[in-house]
Amino acid sequence: MIQINLNGAGDRGASSDSATAAAAAKACQNGDSSECHEQQQQQQEQQQRTLLQQDDLEDSDNQTNLIVNYLPQNMSQDEIKSLFSSIGPVESCKLIRDKTTGQSLGYGFVNFANAKDALKAIGSLNGLRLQNKTIKVSMARPSSESIKGANLYICGLPKGMTQQELVQLFSQCGKIITSRILYDSNT
Question: Which keywords has UniProt assigned to this entry (predicted)?
């Protein structure tokens, strides 16, 4: 079993902004103007990142799935789920393993019940040191399984058909996510 030392991650869960603000205040009180300015700049950057992430959450339907990179090799799926469950309800957790050896590939996915907990997990756990690794927690890109629809391959298109004509022809059947016409370089 792995012992996970969160090094105050529970305190950081409230907000990494407060830690940055405290560091800035301490530097300013000590009269270190360059350190004070640097800490204040870091605080502003963190606040901007948080606002951008919140805007992204409002603009998208489902921002609950996180990718967790740089996991320790011997960390189990249950331990990952336990760590992230300290932030909020976790719907699913998957540690990615090598298909032949069963060895951890050092990354996994955590899907929260709601987007606010996912955002809170990024703020609290991103950069957390576990054993000899510093984990990276960020929003995962949607998998192809979560995109409704299918790939449609069409042959026998007229040689002069343009990309715009193709899209116009098939857009009446539904939303086109991407389209491409492949040309034979020999003809």
Answer: Repeat, RNA-binding
Note whether 79 and 2 are within 8 A (CB): yes
User: What is the spatial order of strands in the sheet that 104-112 belongs to?
Assistant: 90-97, 104-112, 65-69, 136-139
Spatial separation of the C-alpha atoms in residues 68 and 125, rounded to whole Å: 10
Indicate if 116 and 161 belong to the same structural domain. no
> How many CB atoms are closer than 10 A to CB 142?
13
Q: Which two tokens stand for residue 60?
A: 């998208």
Same domain, 133 and 166: no
64 three-class SS? coil
E strand or H helix at 69, and its extent? Answer: strand 65-69
Quick one: tokens of 71?
């996991």
Q: Could you read off the pLDDT of 62-78 as tens digits, one per residue? A: 689 999 999 999 999 99
Return the structure tokens found at 147.
């995109």
Q: Is 75 exposed, middle or buried (0-12, 13-18, 19+ CB in 10 A)?
A: buried
Residue 128 belongs to domain spanning: 65-140
Same domain, 72 and 131: yes
Q: Which residues touch 88 (CB under 8 Å, ≥6 apart)?
A: 112, 113, 114, 116, 117, 120, 121
* Digit-coded pLDDT (tens) for 106-156: 999 999 999 999 999 999 999 999 998 999 999 988 765 555 556 778 888
